[in-house]
Each structure stands twice: as structure tokens, then as C-alpha cells.
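Closing statement on the NAP sub-project.
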Amino acid sequence: MKKIALLGATGSIGLKVIAEINKQSHLQLVAISAHQNIKALLDLKQVHNIKYAALSSPTFKHSTNEYIAGEKWYTQLYESSSPDWVIIASSGFDALIPAYEALKRGKRLLMANKEALVSGGDLLLELAAANNEPIIPIDSEHSAIFQCLQGENPAHVRKIYLTASGGPFRGMSANEKLNISVQQAIQHPVWKMGAKISIDSATMMNKGLEAIEAHKLFGLEAHQIDFLIHPQAIMHSMVEFTDGSYKAQMSTPDMAIPIRYALSYPERFISQTNPLLLSELRFYPLNMDEYPALGLALRAMAMGGNAPCALNAANEAAVDAFIHQKIKFTHIADWVSEALNDFKYIEKPGLEDLVYTHTETIRYINNKINKHHGYSN
Ligand SMILES: NC(=O)c1ccc[n+]([C@@H]2O[C@H](COP(=O)([O-])OP(=O)(O)OC[C@H]3O[C@@H](n4cnc5c(N)ncnc54)[C@H](OP(=O)(O)O)[C@@H]3O)[C@@H](O)[C@H]2O)c1
């Protein structure tokens, strides 16, 4: 029996994780968290008979009989429920410290969240290596690469290809993109996801975050990471080896599949699925000029240090401003670029440096956006 704590249980990934855990009698969900959606959290706790629940938002200051809350809610959650595995399906940079604390306690980490890996991947991987456990990726592209690398020597990887559906606005000019609404940006053509990641997919920042995630998780250099547009989202990524062989992982576009692999690793569960329509697969080169956000992410990856953390923070702030209709869709990349031109670079950031970089960058971008509020509407 493996005991599991799931952070971000009320989200799009969290709910799918619960459904997959419930199919396996040897997996037991002992703890869940949400940020502020108290009703959804307590409903899940009751329906699935989960012993511990926590709320991470600072608006919930104290624990009650029903939930754990307060500044170090994750410490109390881990200590009360003693999970073997921690699954991070919460969104944003705020997942970094709970992920770090889970690894420090020797837990196996199953990671859907990308912002924490982008910002603090080096620290997390160091701890995982000390525990002698890989961080098991749930993000579909990284699950694909992780699966392709099983039984392989990492030194034999020449290159990886991250696939991208191209988002809803592929082929549009910058001018046409100017008036994209929040509603349009959160309608992804293939995947059904939370609002933030849907907007990141539309700007293609999502692919940039994934490139940094792959760089950290698999120790790849920038020149070893390439991109392919693949609108059907069936091939989730591909590895090219030094002998000219390629391995790819394919499945229907459903996050249940990488979740299932993370829960069964290194085994596989049995599951009924529909056959793939392989004759429909199409691939196109990715036009970098169309997606300034992707270029910015590659620039942050090349800078290293705390640059990916600053990039991620600026993107979180700019996406939030777009959702609240303070800025236009195409301005998201402009504000990220502004932050990358003007942040305090730290070559080897520790946890406190990353928290500082994140907080300061958010403050800087929010101030700038509020000052320019008039022009952006
Ligand atoms: N959705 C996908 O298909 C997909 C695929 C690959 C990777 N991911 C990654 O997985 C993560 C979750 O994505 P999602 O689409 O499931 O997001 P989502 O539907 O928006 O759900 C986010 C979850 O995180 C919680 N949360 C929000 N802000 C938080 C904070 N500041 N601190 C702690 N918890 C917080 C939410 O709680 P409340 O309900 O209380 O707000 C909710 O449980 C993201 O990092 C995303 O990039 C998602």
C-alpha cells in the first residue's frame, strides 16, 4: 500500500489524479490540498474519505477540525498524514517550497507543476538525487521523454523534440492577436486545462517553460532541445539518439495517461483505451517569429541562474493582468521581456534567493503594469 498526498486536488490535474488513484486498490489518498476553494476541498475530503485536507491561501490563518491552514500548512500536512509519495498538481511558483519540503523528508515526488521546476529545478533535482529517486514528471511531454529514456544511457541522447499543438492562434499575425479575449485564449483546441496553462499554451510560453523543465529534468543543453508543431497532440515528444534511432511516446491526448504512468512507474497499469488514428498524424516546423514568449524562455534558459525564475514570475504576473483585463494578449511577452532586461541576476540561487526573485519580479511587473494601465486598455 502506498500512501499519497495530493496538492492542488481541486484543479484539472488534481481531479484526474484522484480518479486514477481510486482505480488502484494499492494506492491510498491520505491528504489533499487546495488554495482557497474550501467547498470543493471539503467535498472531495468527504466523498473520497480522505483523512487530511489543507488550504494554502494565507486568508486561512489557522487549522480547524476540518482542515489544516497557516503559514507552514504543508509541514503539518506531511507530518499528520505521513505519505510515501507527494503529487504536486497545484499551479504556480508557490508549489516550490512544498515540493522542496517533500523531498527533504525523503518522499517520492510526482510532479505536474511546471513553474516550480522551471524556477527551482536545480534545487529539487539535487534533493531527489540525494534521495536516490527520480522526480517523476506528469507533464505529458516530459512523461514522454522520461518513458523514452527508460533503459537508456543519458549520454546517448543527441536531441529531444518537444511537440506543440500550436495553440488556438497559430498562423495569426501579431496585429490579429492584439484583440484576443481572455475567453478565446483559455479555449485550447485539444487539451482541457486550467486557465493559466491554457493562456501559456496560446502565447507558447508553455513550450518555453517545458524547454526549461526538460533542460533541468534531463540535463540537456539548449542546442539539444527542438520543437515540432503537431496539431493532433498524439505524439507527446520524441528522443533522437546518437546512433540515429528515434523513440517517441504516443497516446490519445488525455492527461490520465501520463498520470497513470507516474502512479505505476516503473510498471504499467492495464487500461482500456481507443486505438490511435495514426494516419492523421501531421508535423510542421515551429516558426519562432510567431511566438516571442518562446524566444524569451530560451533566452532565460541560456542565462541560467535565477533568470528562469524571473521569467516565470513575470509571466505569472502578466498572465494574471491579462485575465483581469489590465493588458492585452500580445503585451504578456512585452512585460516578460521588460523583466528579463531588468532583474538582479544571481548565478547560484538558493531557496531564499528564488523566493526573493519571484516576489520582487511580481512586484516590479505589477507596478509597471499599473503605471501603464491607461495605455494598455
Ligand atoms: N491541466 C493540464 O492539462 C496540465 C498539463 C501539464 C501540466 N500542468 C501543470 O499542472 C499544474 C496544475 O494545472 P491545472 O491545469 O490543473 O490548474 P488548475 O485547474 O488551475 O488547478 C490549480 C490547483 O492548484 C491550486 N492552487 C492555485 N493557486 C495556488 C497557490 N498559489 N498555491 C497552492 N495551490 C494553488 C488550486 O486550488 P483552488 O481550487 O483552491 O484555487 C487548484 O487545486 C500547473 O503547474 C500546470 O502547468 C497542467
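The longest helix spans residues 351-371. With this model delivered, the sub-project is considered complete and its resources will be redirected to Aim 3.
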